[in-house]
Description:
With about 220 residues, the protein is of the alpha+beta class. The radius of gyration is 25 Å and the shape is elongated. The strands form three sheets. It has a four-stranded antiparallel beta sheet, with helices on one face. A three-stranded antiparallel beta sheet has the order 1-5-4. A two-stranded antiparallel ribbon has the order 2-3. The chain is built from eight helices and nine strands.
Amino acid sequence: MFVKDVMTANPITVTPNVSVMEALEIMKRSKVRRLPVVQGGKLVGIVTDRDLLQVSPSPATSLSVFEINYLISKMTVKEAMTTRVITVSPDDTIEKAAVVMRENSIGAVPVIDGMTVAGIITETDIFDAFLEMLGATRAGVRLTVDLPDRKGILARVAGAISEAGANIISVATFELAPGTVRIVIRLEPDNADEAAQAISACGFDVVHRVRSYVQ
């Protein structure tokens, strides 16, 4: 799955000269927390609701309400935005986007196609995509199986499932220990129990089995 498959295309953007109050209103109205900042068709920054609130005067200030409102009305996005923007491209994998966000401790990245802001991808988009890839949104049976980390082992498990008449929704692998992998297999409900028995009959350890339902 690629960034272009899950991103929000043609995101709402602002220019650097938009006021802080207007940017906050745009976020509130559009129910977003971040806005790419564009000037002359080029990405020049990104601003979050937290950035905008941090540049506003402190509630502890001695200024009057009128003075505070006047100062806020004069503040622009340029004063609050981050100019060092980390981006990804539409053709990057969602795994790459997830790594970029994790390594930089950010919750979203603009998606750049050439010089154009093609979209924005958030941690929620990544989370939803991984749930879809793992088959967690579909009814079925989830099997956890511990296997020796050797060539051909996964093929044997898949063969046992096929012979039992079951169909695989998704497979995920995790290194449990040196020489051992744990795989999580989601199966369609039909013949899933027979598949679990077939895997056990091959000498593999089915350590957990649970049936999931779509809410």
